[in-house]
C-alpha cells in the first residue's frame, strides 16, 4: 500500500479552467480546460478533473468512398546509371577546388540483398523534350517588394498590358519575381531592364493606403506634387532561355554540360501550378496543393466555421533518366464562404454558423468576443461598394460599437452606420445591434456587409484530428486509384491541352527489395520473424510484437524509490473516489512494471499538487519535491488533463529545475477501469519509458544483426540531430538538439540542446554539442569511437550543400577539438546521412507474395501496404546522389510513409546493402515501442529532445530591446539538469 498523503500545496484560483475559452480554446465550462487548440466552445477541454470531453457542435466527418481501379506502367526499365555516375565523379574531381574539402557523395552502387519484388508509385512520366521557356525577372519598388499579395496582383495586371496581353496564354508567373513564357516576349534583350508603369486606376484597390503614402512621400522627395498620384512601376529583365532538352540530357547524364537543374524544375513547377490555379474552381493552398471546389456549400462541414475539402499535391521532380510528376491526394480545412443554399456567406452568417445557429441574434456579443480570435485575419469582400475592391482582412471585432450606436459626422450631421449604409448603398441591415467589424484604421463595417472571400485555408490548430484522419486516410490501392483515375484528369484538364499530352496516364512501377527483420532480444525471449506466404495474419507480425511474459534485456538495477504527484486544480479538487482509484492504479502500476524489470519500493508517497494557474505550477512542484529529492529516484506525475502548458510546467520543474527522472500520464486513462480492471497493457508500455530513463535496456539487436556497428568490440558512435521551429513562434528562435549513443547495444542516447536564431538552415552549435556527445561516449564506453554514423533530420533537398559545407565541417571540427582537449590522435571515419520525412512519395504493393533467395514464395505485403523492410533505390530516386527509400514500419491505417535517406558524406564506405540493413535494423529498437518505427531512432530521439527543450521556454517573452537568442537562453536556464543529463529524459 502507498504511504503518502494528499495535502499538497496550492493557491486559491482555478487556473486550468480557462473561463470562456482563453486565448485559443473554447468556452469550456465551470470545470473545463482551456479548450485545446482552435476548437471553439469546449475545444478539447471537456469537463475538467480526470474526465474527457467531446464538442458535439463540431460536425461529424463522413469518410468518402472511392472505387477507382489504378492502371500501372510496365516495370521501369532504365539503363545502368553507374558507368555514367563514375564518369561524373571523375569529372567533378578534376574541377574540385582546394577550398571545397567535401563533395556530395555520388551513388556507389545498388543493393542486392532481400526479396525482389516491384511496387507502384504515385509518379507519372513527364515528356519535356522540345519544351522551352523564356525566363524574365521582375523587380518592384522597394516599398512593394516585400508585399507578396500586392506583387501577385500587380503581375496579373502586368499581363493585361502591352506587350504581354497578346501572349498572355503563353505566360506564367510565380506571384513574386519571375515570368516564364513559352514564346519570346518583344523585350528579350539580355541585361536590359524595361520599365512598365501602372496607372492609378490599375493599382487602386491593390496597393494598401500605407504603401501609397510611403510612395507619395518618396515622390515628394523627388519633386513631385503632394496631390500627385504616386508612381507605381516594375522592371522586367530577360535572363535566359531554358531549353528543357538540356534538362533531359542532365537527368540522363548524357553530356557534361553544367546546368543548374533547379532553375529548370522551378520553371516547370511554376508553369504547371499557375495554369492549374488559374481555373475558376481551383483553390491553391500552400505550395503545390490544389483543391477543386465547384460548390463549397456541398463540401463536408468540419470544425466550427470550417469545411473540409479534398485536393491534390502535384510537383515536378527529376530522377535518373526521367522527369516525372509526383501526385498525392491531400485534404485541407477551409473557412466557410457559402451558405447551404449556395449563396455567398457574410461574416454575420459565418459567426452564426460557428455557434451552431442560423440567426446571428441568437448569439450574444460576449460569446462573439470570446471567440473573435477565430475571425481575426479572415479576408472579406465589400460587394456593397458596387465595384471590385481589394479584399480586406478582419483586424478586429468591436467590443461595444454596433451599426445602430456608432455614429460619425456625415455632411455635417451625426449619422449611424446603419443609416449610412441604407442611404448610401440601399443596404438595410438585419443585425443593426451586432458588433461592427474593424477593417483597420477608421474603417468599421457591419458584419452582414462583409462577404467571406472563398478559398481561405484555415491556418490554426486542427482539434478534430480524428475527423481529418477519417476523411483523408486511405489504403494504397485507393490512393493509387485516386491519383491515376481522378487526380491526373483534374490536373491535366486545367492546363494547356498540348502540355497535358506530355503527362503520362499510367503510374510508374519500380523495383523493390524487402529486407529480413532483425532478431530482437529480451532477457528471457527473442523476437524472430519467420518469412512465409501471406495468410492475412503472420505477415502483420513483422515489426510488431508485445511484452507479454517478457523481461527487459537489462532490468533496472536495485529497488527504486517512487513518488507520485497528482495534479488538481483548486477549483476542481479531487473527489474521494478519485483518490482511491489513483492509489489503487499506482499499486497496480508498480506491480506490473516489476514483472518486466523495473522494481519500485511498494511504499511510495502520493502528493497532491494543487494549483490555481498553470503559470504557477512549476513553482508549486519545485516547492513540494525539493524536500523529497534525496528520497526520490523517480516521479510519476498524474496530469488532471491533457494540455501542453501543464505538461511543459511539469517537465520544466523536474527535468530542468530539480533534475529528477520522471514521466507523465493522464489521470482519466491511468486510473480508468474496464470491466473492473485497470489497463495493464498501458502500464506495461509505460514501463518501457521507465526502464530506459532509469538506466535499463528494453530490447536490443542480436549480435548478428548489429553488423558493422561494432568493430573489434568497439561500438560506433551513433549521432542524431534536428532543429525545431516552433509554430506560432514570435520570439524569433529555434531549438536544436544532438543525441549520441553511449553503449554497445545502442539503447541509450542522452543529448545536448541549444538555442539559435529562427530560420537558420544549419545547426549553429553543432561542433560544441558533438564534443559533448563524444566525451559522454568515452566516459561510458572507456574509449573514443573509431566510427561515427550521423543521422540528420529536418533537412530539405535544397539544403544539402550548405549542410555539407557547414555541418559536416562542424562535426569534423569536433573531432579536432576532442583530440586537442585530450591530447590524443582522434579522427574517426564519418558517415553523414540526412532524412527527409516530409515528402510526397508513396508506394503501392503489386504482389502479395514473391520468391525469396531460397526460391520460396513469401509475403511482401501486409495490411494492403508494402512490408516493413522494403527498400526502393531505383526509378524515383535521385539522378546520381546516394539515396534510398526505406519503409520500416507496419501501417496500422492508411498508407505507409517511407523514410527518404540521402548519404551526403561517407568515409566508412559501407556498401548500400550494409547501410540500408543497419538503418532498418535500428528502426526496430526504438526504446519506447514494441513496433518498428518510421524514422531511424537517432533522428527520432533528436526530434523528441527538441520538443522537450521547448517545454523549458514555454511562455517565455522577449523584450523589445532584447536579443531573442539571449532572452530565450536565459529563459532556458541550465537546460537539462546535470543530475539527469546522462539519461534519456525526453523519451
UniProtKB/TrEMBL annotation:
<feature type="domain" description="Piwi">
    <location>
        <begin position="634"/>
        <end position="954"/>
    </location>
</feature>
<dbReference type="InterPro" id="IPR036085">
    <property type="entry name" value="PAZ_dom_sf"/>
</dbReference>
<feature type="domain" description="PAZ">
    <location>
        <begin position="364"/>
        <end position="454"/>
    </location>
</feature>
<dbReference type="InterPro" id="IPR003100">
    <property type="entry name" value="PAZ_dom"/>
</dbReference>
<feature type="region of interest" description="Disordered">
    <location>
        <begin position="1"/>
        <end position="57"/>
    </location>
</feature>
<dbReference type="Pfam" id="PF02170">
    <property type="entry name" value="PAZ"/>
</dbReference>
<feature type="compositionally biased region" description="Gly residues">
    <location>
        <begin position="33"/>
        <end position="54"/>
    </location>
</feature>
<dbReference type="InterPro" id="IPR032474">
    <property type="entry name" value="Argonaute_N"/>
</dbReference>
<dbReference type="Pfam" id="PF08699">
    <property type="entry name" value="ArgoL1"/>
</dbReference>
<protein>
    <recommendedName>
        <fullName>Piwi domain-containing protein</fullName>
    </recommendedName>
</protein>
<feature type="compositionally biased region" description="Gly residues">
    <location>
        <begin position="1"/>
        <end position="25"/>
    </location>
</feature>
<dbReference type="Pfam" id="PF02171">
    <property type="entry name" value="Piwi"/>
</dbReference>
<dbReference type="Pfam" id="PF16486">
    <property type="entry name" value="ArgoN"/>
</dbReference>
<dbReference type="InterPro" id="IPR014811">
    <property type="entry name" value="ArgoL1"/>
</dbReference>
<dbReference type="GO" id="GO:0003723">
    <property type="term" value="F:RNA binding"/>
</dbReference>
<dbReference type="InterPro" id="IPR036397">
    <property type="entry name" value="RNaseH_sf"/>
</dbReference>
<dbReference type="InterPro" id="IPR003165">
    <property type="entry name" value="Piwi"/>
</dbReference>
<dbReference type="InterPro" id="IPR012337">
    <property type="entry name" value="RNaseH-like_sf"/>
</dbReference>
Amino acid at each position: 500500500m502507498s504511504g503518502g498523503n494528499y495535502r499538497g500545496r496550492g493557491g486559491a484560483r482555478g487556473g486550468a479552467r480557462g473561463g470562456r475559452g482563453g486565448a485559443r480554446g473554447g468556452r469550456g465550462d465551470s470545470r473545463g480546460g482551456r479548450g485545446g487548440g482552435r476548437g471553439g466552445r469546449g475545444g478539447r477541454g471537456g469537463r475538467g478533473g480526470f474526465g474527457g470531453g467531446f464538442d458535439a457542435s463540431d460536425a461529424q466527418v463522413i469518410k468518402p468512398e472511392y472505387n477507382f481501379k489504378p492502371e500501372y506502367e510496365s516495370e521501369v526499365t532504365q539503363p545502368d546509371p553507374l558507368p555514367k555516375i563514375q564518369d561524373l565523379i571523375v569529372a567533378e574531381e578534376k574541377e574540385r577546388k582546394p577550398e571545397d574539402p567535401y563533395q556530395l557523395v555520388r551513388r556507389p552502387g545498388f543493393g542486392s540483398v532481400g526479396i525482389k519484388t516491384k511496387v507502384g508509385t504515385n509518379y507519372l512520366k513527364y515528356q519535356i523534350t522540345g519544351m522551352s521557356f523564356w525566363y524574365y525577372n521582375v523587380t518592384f519598388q522597394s516599398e512593394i517588394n516585400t508585399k507578396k499579395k500586392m506583387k501577385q496582383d500587380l503581375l496579373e495586371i502586368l499581363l493585361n498590358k502591352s506587350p504581354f496581353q497578346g501572349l498572355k496564354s503563353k505566360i506564367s508567373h510565380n506571384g513574386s519575381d519571375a515570368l516564364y513564357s513559352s514564346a519570346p516576349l518583344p523585350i528579350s534583350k539580355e541585361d536590359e531592364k524595361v520599365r512598365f508603369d501602372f496607372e492609378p486606376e490599375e493599382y487602386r484597390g491593390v496597393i494598401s493606403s500605407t504603401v501609397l503614402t510611403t510612395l507619395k512621400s518618396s515622390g515628394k522627395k523627388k519633386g513631385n506634387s503632394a496631390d500627385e498620384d504616386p508612381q507605381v512601376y516594375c522592371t522586367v529583365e530577360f535572363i535566359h532561355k531554358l531549353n528543357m532538352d538540356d534538362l533531359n540530357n542532365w537527368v540522363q547524364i548524357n553530356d557534361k554540360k553544367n546546368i543548374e537543374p533547379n532553375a529548370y524544375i522551378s520553371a516547370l513547377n511554376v508553369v504547371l501550378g499557375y495554369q492549374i490555379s488559374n481555373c475558376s474552381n481551383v483553390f491553391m493552398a500552400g505550395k503545390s496543393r490544389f483543391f477543386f471546389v465547384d460548390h463549397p456549400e456541398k463540401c463536408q462541414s468540419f470544425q466550427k466555421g470550417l469545411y473540409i475539402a479534398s485536393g491534390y499535391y502535384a510537383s515536378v521532380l527529376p530522377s535518373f533518366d526521367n522527369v516525372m510528376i509526383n501526385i498525392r491526394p491531400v485534404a485541407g480545412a477551409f473557412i466557410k464562404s457559402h451558405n447551404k443554399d449556395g449563396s455567398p456567406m457574410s461574416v454575420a452568417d459565418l459567426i452564426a454558423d460557428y455557434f451552431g445557429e442560423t440567426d446571428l441574434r441568437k448569439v450574444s456579443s460576449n460569446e462573439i468576443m470570446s471567440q473573435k480570435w477565430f475571425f481575426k485575419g479572415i479576408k472579406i469582400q465589400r460587394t456593397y461598394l458596387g465595384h471590385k475592391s481589394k479584399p480586406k482582412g478582419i483586424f478586429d471585432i468591436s467590443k461595444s460599437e454596433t451599426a445602430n450606436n456608432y455614429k460619425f459626422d456625415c455632411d455635417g450631421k451625426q449619422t449611424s452606420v446603419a443609416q449610412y449604409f441604407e442611404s448610401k448603398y440601399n443596404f438595410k441591415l438585419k443585425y443593426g445591434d451586432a458588433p461592427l467589424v474593424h477593417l483597420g484604421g477608421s474603417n468599421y463595417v457591419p458584419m452582414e456587409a462583409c462577404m467571406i472571400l472563398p478559398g481561405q485555408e484555415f491556418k490554426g490548430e486542427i482539434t478534430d484530428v480524428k475527423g481529418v484522419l477519417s476523411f483523408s486516410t486511405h489504403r494504397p490501392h485507393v490512393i493509387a486509384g485516386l491519383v491515376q483515375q481522378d487526380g491526373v484528369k483534374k490536373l491535366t484538364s486545367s492546363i494547356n491541352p498540348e502540355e497535358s499530352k506530355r503527362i503520362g496516364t499510367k503510374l510508374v512501377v519500380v523495383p523493390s527489395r524487402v529486407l529480413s527483420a532483425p532478431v530482437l532480444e529480451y532477457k528471457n525471449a527473442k523476437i524472430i520473424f519467420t518469412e512465409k506466404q501471406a495468410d492475412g495474419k503472420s505477415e502483420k507480425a513483422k515489426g510488431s510484437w508485445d511484452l507479454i511474459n517478457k523481461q527487459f534485456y537489462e532490468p533496472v538495477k536495485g529497488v527504486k524509490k517512487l513518488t507520485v504527484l497528482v495534479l488538481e486544480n483548486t477549483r476542481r479538487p479531487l473527489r474521494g473516489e478519485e483518490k482511491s482509484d489513483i492509489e489503487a492504479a499506482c499499486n497496480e502500476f508498480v506491480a506490473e512494471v516489476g514483472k518486466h524489470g523495473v522494481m519500485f519500493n511498494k511504499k511510495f508517497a502520493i502528493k497532491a499538487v494543487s494549483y490555481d494557474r498553470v503559470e504557477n505550477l512549476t513553482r508549486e512542484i519545485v516547492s513540494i519535491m525539493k524536500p523529497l529529492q534525496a528520497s526520490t529516484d523517480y516521479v510519476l506525475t498524474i496530469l488532471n488533463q491533457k494540455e501542453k502548458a501543464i505538461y511543459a510546467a511539469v517537465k520544466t520543474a523536474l527535468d530542468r529545475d530539480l533534475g529528477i527522472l520522471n514521466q507523465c500520464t493522464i489521470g482519466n486513462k491511468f486510473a480508468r477501469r474496464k470491466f473492473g480492471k485497470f489497463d495493464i497493457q498501458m502500464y506495461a508500455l509505460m514501463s518501457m519509458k521507465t526502464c530506459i530513463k532509469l538506466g535499463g535496456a528494453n530490447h536490443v539487436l542480436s549480435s548478428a544483426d548489429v553488423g558493422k556497428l561494432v568493430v573489434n568490440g568497439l561500438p560506433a558512435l551513433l549521432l542524431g540531430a534536428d532543429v525545431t521551429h516552433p509554430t506560432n513562434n514570435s520570439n524569433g528562435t529555434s531549438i536544436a538538439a544532438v543525441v549520441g549513443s553511449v553503449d554497445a547495444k545502442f539503447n541509450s542516447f542522452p543529448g545536448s540542446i541549444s538555442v539559435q536564431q529562427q530560420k537558420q538552415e544549419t545547426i549553429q552549435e553543432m561542433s560544441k554539442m558533438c564534443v559533448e556527445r563524444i566525451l559522454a561516449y568515452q566516459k561510458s564506453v572507456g574509449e573514443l569511437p573509431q566510427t561515427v554514423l550521423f543521422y540528420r533530420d529536418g533537412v530539405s533537398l535544397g539544403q544539402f550543400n550548405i549542410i555539407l559545407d557547414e555541418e559536416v565541417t562542424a562535426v569534423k571540427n569536433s573531432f579536432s577539438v576532442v583530440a586537442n582537449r585530450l591530447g590524443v590522435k582522434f579522427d574517426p571515419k564519418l558517415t553523414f546521412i540526412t532524412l527527409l520525412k516530409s515528402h510526397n512519395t508513396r508506394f503501392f504493393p503489386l504482389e502479395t507474395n514473391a520468391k525469396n533467395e531460397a526460391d520460396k514464395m513469401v509475403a511482401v505485403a501486409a495490411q494492403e501496404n508494402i512490408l516493413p523492410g522494403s527498400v526502393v533505390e531505383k526509378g524515383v530516386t535521385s539522378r546520381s546522389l546516394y539515396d534510398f527509400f526505406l519503409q520500416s514500419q507496419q501501417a496500422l491505417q492508411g498508407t505507409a510513409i517511407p523514410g527518404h535517406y540521402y548519404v551526403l558524406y561517407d568515409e566508412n564506405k559501407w556498401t548500400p546493402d550494409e547501410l540500408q540493413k543497419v538503418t532498418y535494423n535500428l528502426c526496430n529498437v526504438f526504446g519506447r515501442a514494441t513496433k518498428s518505427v518510421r524514422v531511424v531512432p537517432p533522428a527520432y530521439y533528436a526530434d523528441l529532445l527538441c520538443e522537450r527543450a521547448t517545454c523549458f521556454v514555454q511562455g517565455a517573452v522577449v523584450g523589445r530591446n532584447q536579443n531573442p537568442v539571449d532572452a530565450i537562453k536565459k529563459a532556458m536556464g541550465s537546460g537539462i539538469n546535470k543530475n539527469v543529463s546522462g539519461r534519456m529524459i525526453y523519451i
